[in-house]
């Protein structure tokens, strides 16, 4: 069975859900820029972009979501570091 999920940046509306997720994981909530993995409208995992620290729901199969968050964050950094000249087409 395939489960649909969403990876997105956290916003202010996610603060309570991040606090709940952190409590489940027995740690503090992430701060700053945070990516979240959402399944069925619930946060299952989150990744603090500056430190790379992840939190996840230990009662769900969330380990793969943490890895996907890390991969997504790495890919986003690589794209952001490309010089603009490499993205623009060459002219003759």
Tally of DSSP helical segments:
3
The helix/strand order is EHEEEHH
Number of strands: 4
Radius of gyration, CA atoms, in whole angstroms: 16 Å
| Overall form | globular
What amount of the residues lies in strands?
A: 15-25%
Give a quick rundown of the structure:
With 92 residues, the protein is α+β, with helices and mostly antiparallel strands. The chain has helices at residues 15-24, 63-81, 84-87; strands at residues 6-9, 34-39, 42-48, 54-56. It has one domain (6-87).
Question: What does this 3D model show about the protein?
Answer:
- This protein has one domain.
- Strands 1-2-3-4 form a four-stranded antiparallel sheet, with helices on both faces.
- The protein is globular, with a radius of gyration of 16 Å.
- The N and C termini lie far apart (51 Å).
- By secondary structure, it is an alpha+beta fold.
- Helices cover 36% and strands 22% of the residues.
- It has three helices and four strands, in the order βαβββαα.
- The chain has helices at residues 15-24, 63-81, 84-87; strands spanning 6-9, 34-39, 42-48, 54-56.
- A hairpin with a 2-residue loop joins strand 2 (34-39) and strand 3.
List key phrases describing it:
92 residues, alpha+beta, globular
Note the topology:
Layout: E1 6-9, H1 15-24, E2 34-39, E3 42-48, E4 54-56, H2 63-81, H3 84-87
Antiparallel strand pairs: 1-2, 2-3, 3-4
């Amino acid at each position: 069975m395939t489960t649909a999920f969403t990876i997105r940046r956290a916003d202010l509306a996610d603060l309570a859900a991040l606090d709940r997720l952190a409590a489940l994981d027995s740690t503090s909530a992430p701060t700053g820029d945070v990516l979240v993995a959402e399944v069925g409208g619930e946060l299952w995992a989150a990744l603090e972009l500056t430190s790379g620290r992840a939190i996840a729901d230990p009662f769900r199969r969330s380990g793969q979501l943490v890895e996907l968050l890390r991969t997504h964050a790495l890919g986003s950094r690589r794209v952001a570091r490309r010089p603009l000249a490499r993205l623009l087409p060459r002219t003759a």
